[in-house]
Design goal:
heterodimer; A: 300 residues; alpha/beta; 7-stranded mixed β-sheet; elongated; B: 639 residues; mainly alpha; 4 domains; two-stranded antiparallel ribbon; 24 helices; globular
Chain lengths: 300, 639
Amino acid sequence: MIDARDLRKEYGDFVAVEGSTFSVDQGEVFGVIGPNGAGKTTTLKMLAGLLEPTGGTAEIAGMDTETTEMRQQLGFLPEESPLYEEMTPISYLKFFADLYDVSGDVAQRRMHETLDELQLEHKERKLGDMSKGMKRKVAIARSLINDPDVLIYDEPASGLDPLTTNYVIEFTEQLAAEGKTIVFSAHNLFHVESICDRVAIMNEGQIVARGDLDELQAEYGETRYHVYTTVEVPDAVRENGNFRTQVDSMDAVEATRTAAEDAGGQVVDIRTEESSLEEVFLNVAEAGTRGTRYVGEDGE
Amino acid sequence: MRPAKLLRVAKWEVTKNAGGVDKRTLVVMALAVLAMGAVAAVAVSGGGPGLDADIYRVGVDESNPYHQVASEDPSFRVQAPDREAFERGDQDLTFYSANRLSRPQTEKQSAALEALRSSTESYNDRTMARADNQTAAFPVTVTLVYQEQNGTSTLDTSTGGGDTTADDGNGSDGPSAGGNGTDGQTSDGATATGGGSGGSAGDGGSDGNTGGGEAAAAGGGANLGGIGAQLTGDVESGTPGDISPPFPFESLVLAFLYIVPMNFVIQAYGSSMLSERLNRRGELLLVTPASRGDIIGGKTLPYFLGAMGVATAITALLRFSGIAPSGSLVAVAAVLPIALLFLAATFCGAMFARSFKELTFVTVTITVTLTSYAFVPAIFTDVTPIALISPLTLVVMDLTGRSISLGAFAFSTLPPLFTALVLFGLGAGLYREEDMFTQRSIPLKVLDALAGRIKSRKSALKMSAILIPFVIVAELGAIAFLFVLDSVSLNVFGTNQSLGIVLVLGVVAVVEELGKSLHLYAGYAHARYERTLRSAIGLGALSGLGFFLAEKGLLIVRLSDLEELPIGDAATLGATPPAGVPLWAVALLFLFAPLALHAVTAAISSVGARRGRWAYVAGVGVAVVVHFAYNLTVVSALA
C-alpha cells in the first residue's frame, strides 16, 4: 500500500532524512518512533506529499504522493493542526468535504457520525472557543472526512490530557480494525506499542531498526525472569511472603533453583518479563547503530 | 487550476472572514467608506457648505447694483446700510450711496472689500456669459498655445499680461470694484494673439491698472507651463479668469477615490494570507486535492472582486450622479492592473513577512510605492507619454471624457499587469510546506522565491526574461519621477546631458543589472548552479541573452510616444533607429551592441555572485558602471 524507497530530504547542507526505506501493507498500522529531530515528521510529510523528497520515491497505492488522486485517498493529521478558529466544526468539515469532492449528503452523514463517535458536542460552537482536546477531535474528524484508505497521523495525542489521549488512541485502534492503513508516530512509545504492528526506529535522519514488535524486542530487548522462592537466596528481595530474584537467563534460573533447594526451600513461581518498546528504543539509540537493521524482514 | 475548487476556496475565504469581523466593525467600516465618498464627491462638485459662509456683513440697499452681487455670494450677509454699525465694527462694508463705499479701517474690512471686488468680477462674468450676443459680450478672442520649455527656465511674460485697458464702464462696476486684472493669468509661457485680453467685463474706473500687477504675479504660476499642457476646460469664450492651469485636480481627486479602497483591501488580504502561514494554519489545505493555484486564486478572488466591485460602483456613482458623466467601463478596466498589482505585491509581502508587525511595514511600503507609481505620472496627464505610465491616467482621461487609443491603453496597463502576474508567480513558488512556515528574513525569502523557479542552467535565460516586467515598471517609474529634472542641464563628462537624463540612465543601469543578476545570485545561494568560473560566465551570457530577447520582444514603449521626450528616448536608448543610418550600423547599434552589453555585464555580476554576497555586490557595482558608461555613450552619440 505504501512504498518508500531511499527517501532523502536535504535543507541546504542539512540532511533531515537519509535513505529511508520501508513499506506498509494494506490494513497495517506502522509506527515511526525516534527522538526529537530524528526525521519522523519529515518522513511522514514526504509520504503525505507535503514535502518534495530531495531523493528517492514515495508511493501510495502505486501513485506518486504528490498527485491529486493520491491526496484524495489520504488522511493526514499533523502534529500541530491549528484550525480556523472563526469557523464551527460543521462549517470547517463541510469546507474540507467540498475540497475532497465529497457530496453534500455523504459529507453531512459522515461528519455527524464521526463527531458523534468522537463524542464531540457543541458542533456549532466556534472552534476558537473549544478546548485543545475538542479541537484535536475536530482535526481527526477532518482527516476522515474523505473516508481515506490511508491515514498518516503524526503525534495524534500530542499535548492532550490522559483521558482524551486514551480516547484518541482507542479511536485510532478502531480505525485500524476497520481496515485503514495507518502510519503513526508518537513520542509515547506505549501508544505505539499498543496499536502498531510494525515499527521503524529513526535516529539522526535514518531508520536504524525496523520490524515487528516481537522481533525487535527479541533482537534489541532482553527477557528477564523473576524467580519466586520460599527461602532467601542471594540477591533476593522479600515480596508477598516469598523471595523474588530477578535473573536474565535460564542458566541463572537453574542456579537459583539449586540455591533454593540447597537452603531447604523451593521455587514456587517463575515469571518472564519482556523489554518494553521504550527499552528497545533506548538500546537501539545507545547502540548508535548506523544503517538499518531489518528484523524479521527480508533485507532490502 | 480547477474553477470549482478555486470558487470553493473563495467562498470559504469570504465566509471565514465574514465570521471573523463583528457587526460593529462592519458598520464603522461602511460609514467610513461612505463618509470618504461623500467628502470626495462634495470636494469635486464644489458643493456643500463653505467655510467662509456669512463671514462678511455688508450694508447695501436693495436698489444698489451691488445688492445682487452680495446676495449671490454666500460669504456675505446682506444688511441694511448703517453707518453707526460700520463704525462699531458690526458691518464690514457699508454703501452710503450707489457709488460711495465706506473706507476700510481694519484688516477684515479690507478683506471684505477684496472679496466684494472678486465677487463682482464673477458676477459680471456670469452676467456676460448669459448675454444673447456673445460676440458683443466678449469682443476680444484670445488663442492660447502652451509650449514646452526648451530646457531653460526663462519665462515669457511679455505677452498677455498687464493689458488692462478698460473698456467703457458699463455702470455696473463702481469705482472701488473695478480693476479686473485677471487677464494676467494668460501669461504663462503663452503666446497671446489678438492683443491680449481686454477688460471686457466692463472694468472701469481708476483701479484698472491693478490688472497689470496681478498679471505679473500670475506670471509666477507660469511654471506650470513647463509641464506642457492644453486647456482642460471646454470654455470657448469668457474672460481670462476662466482659464484654468493644466492641473486636473478634480480628476485626480476622483481617481484617488479608486486607489483609497485598495489600501483597505490589501490590509485584509495581507492579513488573511499571512495568517495561513502563522501557526501552520495553511498546512492542511496543502494536503488536500486542491492545488496551490486553486488555493491562492481562491483566496485572492474575493479581494480582487471586491476591489473591482468598488471601482465599478464608484464609476457608476460618478457617471449617474453627473459628476463624471463620461465615466465608463474603460475606467474600471484601467483599474484592473492596479488592483492586481496591489494584490500581487501584498501577496508576495505576506509570503515574505515573518509577523504581522513585519507585514505592516511591508504593506505600508507597498501602499506608498504603488500609490506613487499610480499618481506621480498622472500629475502629468496633459503630457501623454509620461502620464500614460500610470493606468490611473486612463481613469482620469475616461472620467474627463477624453478618448483613449488601444495602444495607449496597452502601454499603460500591460507592464503593471505582467508585473502583477510575475509577483503572483514568485509568491506562489513559496506557497509550499517547506517555504511557507520558515522564519527567514525578507531578503532571504526573496532569494528563496527566485531560487524556487530555478531548475537548470537554462533557468538563467528564463528568469531574466520573466523579470522584464519588473524592470520596465521600475524604469517607467524612474522616468516619471525624474521627468521634472529634465530641464536641468548638467555637463557630465562633457556630454551636456540634463540631470534627469543622467539620473535615468543611472537608474536604468542599476535596475537592469539587478534584474539580470539577482536570480543568478539566488541560484548560487541555493546551490542550483556550479560555482566554477566557466559556469558563471556561461550563466551570465544566458541571463544577458534572455534579457535582451525579452526586452526587444516587448518594446512596449513603442505603443506610446515616450520616445518623443528626450528623457524617454534616453531611457529606451532610442528604440527606434534614426533615419538614414545604414543597415549594418543599425544592426550593430541596436542588436549586437546591446546583446554584448547585457551578456558581458551579467557575466561580471555572475562571476561575483558565485563567490558570495559581497563579491556579488562588487560585481553588480562594476556591471552598473559599465552599463552606465555604455548608456551615456550611446545617448550622447545619438543626440
